Hints:
There is one protein chain. The chain is mainly alpha-helical and 304 residues long. Helix content is 63%, strand content 0%. The protein has helices at residues 6-32, 35-38, 52-66, 73-86, 94-104, 109-114, 116-119, 126-129, 132-137, 142-154, 160-178, 187-196, 202-212, 219-226, 238-246, 252-260, 266-281, 288-293. Helix 1 (6-32) packs antiparallel against helix 17 (266-281) and helix 3 crosses helix 4 (73-86). The protein is globular and about 50 Å long. InterPro entries: ADP-ribosylglycohydrolase, Ribosyl_crysJ1, Ribosyl_crysJ1_sf.
Amino acid sequence: xxxxxxxxxxxxxxxxxxxxxxxxxxxxxxxxxxxxxxxxxxxxxxxxxxxxxxxxxxxxxxxxxxxxxxxxxxxxxxxxxxxxxxxxxxxxxxxxxxxxxxxxxxxxxxxxxxxxxxxxxxxxxxxxxxxxxxxxxxxxxxxxxxxxxxxxxxxxxxxxxxxxxxxxxxxxxxxxxxxxxxxxxxxxxxxxxxxxxxxxxxxxxxxxxxxxxxxxxxxxxxxxxxxxxxxxxxxxxxxxxxxxxxxxxxxxxxxxxxxxxxxxxxxxxxxxxxxxxxxxxxxxxxxxxxxxxxxxxxxxxxxx
Length: 304
């Protein structure tokens, strides 16, 4: 068992804050409309419960700790299935319910995931939403960060676009970690560096578009052009979430408020942005009330 590096734990905590914070807004916006968000009134619920985004990220960090920073795909698949069986009411997507039930029942994970969607595999954002701590873990080696991000994606999301989305988030978290203690990279430079290491894909195209957006670009326009997760796919989630993160690398709280205003798949965009930003900043600067409200994280050296 290897102790996770501090940036990876910071990233996991930031991911959980983003997930729990973002998830609250689905209900608030439905019940109360946009006014609380416009006024930036934090969710008033006493407990901000995190969703499957964080549940899967915890499993991933435990897998990295067990594997000294590497992902054993067979073991990781079983860990995901076991975590799902223990607590399946965390908001898992329909395809993940099917995958994890079947893997838990003993079907080979490769057959299950490669057989989805007429053999193309899922291109959902689930592999990207959990991966930021892996990027922070491997900040010293971007090639390893990309390789391991792809390996963890393939266990549940086999489609090349899902893999590219996971690699993009891991690279962003790695680059954010590398900048700890120094000036924050400019948004365009940061996104261009991520895009330069991605395979040819819609995700890469989206990140490149995000990098070229003028500084005056409005949040509404960015969400419309890049997509903010309404399709819950890698291509329409990752570029927007990274654009939000890249513009707020010195401010986790502001970054989460900004990201949630893009609507869409709010818990996931905020989880991605939170995981990337916190890899650089940590979470200590968040308001005490947020720390008191967010559901605690279990120790990552416990069994999954």
